[in-house]
Amino acid sequence: MNKAAEPASIRQLLELAAGLLPADTARLDAEVLLAHALGKTRSHLHAWPEKCLSADQQANFQQLLQARIRGEPVAYLTGQREFWSLPLALTPATLIPRPETETLVALALAVIPADNSALIADMGTGSGAIALAIAHERPRCRILATDISPAALETAAANARQLGINNIEFLAGDWCEPLAGRQCDVIVSNPPYIRDTDPHLHSGDIRFEPRSALAAGAEGMNDLTRIAQCAGHLLNRGGWLIMEHGYDQGRQAIELLEANGFQAVADHADDAGLSRVVMGQR
Known about the structure:
Layout (H helix, E strand, L loop, with lengths): L9 H11 L5 H13 L3 H6 L7 H15 L4 H5 L1 E4 L2 E4 L12 H9 L8 E5 L5 H9 L4 E6 L2 H14 L4 E5 L11 E6 L32 H10 L3 E10 L5 H10 L3 E7 L5 E7 L1
Parallel strand pairs: 3-4, 3-6, 4-5, 6-7
Antiparallel strand pairs: 1-2, 7-9, 8-9
């Protein structure tokens, strides 16, 4: 593709783009980027495959395509990502929500009755994905969403306003610190858990995401440990701590919660069958 290209149809542009992008998600990425460039839905592309783009539309799509070829995440290029069927705005200041994190949301909802007015904390909320999903499903509950990043909190609060979700309070601070004096019924978190030396930090979409939201020490356990050590003091008796972790950290996560006095500790797999979420009860 180049700026002097002749007018091309949606079908032609998608076929060309799919041949230039990484094979595993090429067609999907091409459709998402082209739909974004046109301000349309992906279904529009399928309904009007022979429609030709204007020169400006082609130029816009070309810029997006070249950025994706360089490796920039689609979610950052479009500024949005769906999580738990909620459309979320994203910026490079926030981690990109991933499907496996919906496992954590499902486990949290399983211990929060639908008619409950519990106090729930989401530590390290980022874009607000987890907090917003729980708040949406449990409108009678109050959610405390914390993050050390002011930019992330601004994004999360903007998402709450856009979605009309009003039962979340956003608090700035590091892990348990902004929750001092509160007693919660459930604490959830998707903290950093990648080892500092993991080569994946330098490849794919991850290299564009905030490192502070990804890496957590030599074993990837620094932040999981900090949360486990302080969360018990913030939970009511019978309350639950639920944390996401790396696929190979299940045993360590179980031992961590047990060492910090949690009961009924169990690890749960995500939809791909990988160890993903640990939970324990105070």
